C-alpha cells in the first residue's frame, strides 16, 4: 500500500516536471537570447544544445541599448505612474462602493450589485469604442487620465471589498455610531485598516492589469510621451521586420516590476483571496 502511494507521488512529480519544462524552457531561451550580442542571436538556435540556453559570452549591451537609445526607461516610468495612481484611486473608490453595498440597505441595491458583477464579466474589448468616444468628449484623450480613469471603477475590486466587508461584524459599526463616529470615520478608521488582505489583492490585480495593458493605450494615446511598457515592447515588431534582441531584452526588463511586486506580496495576496470568498 505504501509503495503504491510512493509510485503515485513519483509519477505525479515526473508528469508535473515534464509539463513545467514547456514553460521554463522558452523563458530560459529568451533570457539567454537577451544576454547575447544582437548579431549572434540565431547562432545556436538550431539545433538545440547547451549553448542555446547558456550564452558563451553574456553581455548587457541589449539592455543598455533599449534604455539609452530607445528610451525604454520612460515607458517603465509611465507604466509605474499609471499603475500607482490607478491603484490609489481604485482602492478608495472601490472600497467605498464595497462598503455601501455590504453594510447599507437602499432601493435598487441588488440591481447595482448585479451591474457590478456584469462589468467584470464583459470583455473589455467590447466597450472600447464607446469608451473612446466618452474619453474624446471629455477631451482627455492622449493624456495620462485616459489611461488611468477607465481602470478606476473596477467591478472585481468592488466585489472583493463587498465580500470582505460583509464578513465584518455589524456590531463594530453600531458601537462606533453610539460613540458618535460618522460613517466616513467608521469606514476610514475601522473598516479600511481591517481590510488589508483585500487591499493587497486589489493592488496586485490592478497593477497587473495596468502593467499588461496594450490595446487600450494604443487606442487612447498616440504620443510617445505617454508610451507604456507593453506598447514599447510591441513597437519592436512590425510587418516588415522584428528586432528580436530589443524585443527579448525589453520583455525581460518589463517583466521584472510585476514579478518583484508579486513575490513581495504573494503571502498577503493568497490570504486576501482566501478571505474574500473566491477560494475554490
TrEMBL record:
Chain segments annotated as transmembrane: 12-32, 75-99, 111-133, 145-165, 186-209, 244-265
Pfam family, one: BPD_transp_1
GO biological process: transmembrane transport
GO CC, any one term: plasma membrane
SUPFAM superfamilies named in the record: MetI-like
Keywords: Cell membrane, Membrane, Sugar transport, Transmembrane, Transmembrane helix, Transport
Family matches, as InterPro entries: MetI-like, MetI-like_sf
Main location: membrane
Subcellular location: Cell membrane
Membrane topology: Multi-pass membrane protein
Domain ABC transmembrane type-1: start-end pairs: 76-265
Keyword Heme: no
Family: Belongs to the binding-protein-dependent transport system permease family.
Protein name: ABC-type sugar transport system, permease component
Lineage: Bacteria, Thermotogati, Thermotogota, Thermotogae, Kosmotogales
Amino acid at each position: 500500500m505504501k509503495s503504491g502511494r510512493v509510485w503515485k507521488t513519483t509519477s505525479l512529480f515526473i508528469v508535473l516536471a515534464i509539463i513545467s519544462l514547456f514553460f521554463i524552457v522558452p523563458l530560459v531561451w529568451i533570457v539567454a537570447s537577451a544576454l547575447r550580442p544582437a548579431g549572434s542571436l540565431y547562432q545556436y538556435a538550431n539545433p538545440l544544445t547547451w549553448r542555446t540556453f547558456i550564452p558563451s559570452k553574456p553581455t548587457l549591451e541589449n539592455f543598455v541599448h533599449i534604455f539609452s537609445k530607445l528610451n525604454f526607461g520612460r515607458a517603465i516610468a509611465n507604466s509605474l505612474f499609471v499603475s500607482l495612481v490607478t491603484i490609489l484611486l481604485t482602492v478608495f473608490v472601490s472600497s467605498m462602493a464595497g462598503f455601501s453595498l455590504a453594510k447599507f440597505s437602499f432601493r435598487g441595491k441588488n440591481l447595482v450589485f448585479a451591474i457590478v458583477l456584469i462589468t467584470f464579466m464583459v470583455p473589455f474589448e467590447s466597450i472600447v469604442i464607446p469608451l473612446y468616444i466618452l474619453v474624446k468628449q471629455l477631451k482627455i484623450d492622449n493624456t495620462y487620465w485616459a489611461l488611468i480613469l477607465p481602470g478606476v471603477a473596477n467591478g472585481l475590486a468592488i466585489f472583493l471589498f463587498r465580500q470582505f466587508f460583509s464578513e465584518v461584524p455589524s456590531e463594530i459599526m453600531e458601537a462606533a455610531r453610539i460613540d458618535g463616529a460618522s460613517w466616513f470615520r467608521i469606514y476610514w478608521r475601522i473598516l479600511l485598516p481591517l481590510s488589508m488582505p483585500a487591499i493587497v489583492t486589489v493592488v496586485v490585480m490592478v497593477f497587473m492589469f495596468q502593467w499588461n495593458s496594450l490595446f487600450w493605450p494604443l487606442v487612447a494615446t498616440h504620443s510617445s510621451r505617454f508610451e507604456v511598457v507593453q506598447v514599447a515592447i510591441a513597437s519592436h515588431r512590425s510587418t516588415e521586420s522584428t528586432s528580436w534582441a530589443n524585443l527579448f531584452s525589453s520583455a525581460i526588463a518589463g517583466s521584472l516590476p510585476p514579478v518583484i511586486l508579486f513575490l513581495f506580496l504573494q503571502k498577503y495576496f493568497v490570504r486576501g483571496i482566501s478571505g474574500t470568498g473566491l477560494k475554490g
